[in-house]
Design goal:
Radius of gyration: 13 Å
Strand content: 15-25%
Helix content: 40-55%
Structural class: alpha+beta
Largest sheet: 3 strands, antiparallel
Number of strands: 5
Shape: globular
Length: 89
């Protein structure tokens, strides 16, 4: 999978949000707000192909979390990305 072209991670008042370049592609009902961990993952994989395992490994390398927590967090993040329509699979 891959983050679709045209979506960018931005910082707004200490918050991370995903925006779309070009107003014709923005659905303001689906602006995504990310926590710092999700933003870390976005920054690591933006512009690359990745899978769930790669994201889990990134979490395990960067944070002191269990495998179970990492897997659940990654599944939730990918579900959020899918719902917003920002993944190419």
């Amino acid at each position: 999978m891959r983050i679709k072209d045209g979506f960018k991670l931005r910082t707004l008042l200490k918050e991370y949000i995903v925006t779309s370049e070009g107003t014709n592609r923005v659905d303001f009902n689906k602006i995504i707000s990310l926590n710092s961990t999700a933003a870390f993952l976005w920054q690591k994989v933006a512009g690359t192909d990745f899978n769930e395992e790669a994201l889990v490994n990134l979490l395990l390398e960067e944070y002191e979390v269990t495998m179970e927590v990492a897997v659940n967090d990654v599944k939730n993040l990918i579900d959020q990305f899918r719902e917003a329509g920002i993944l190419d699979e």
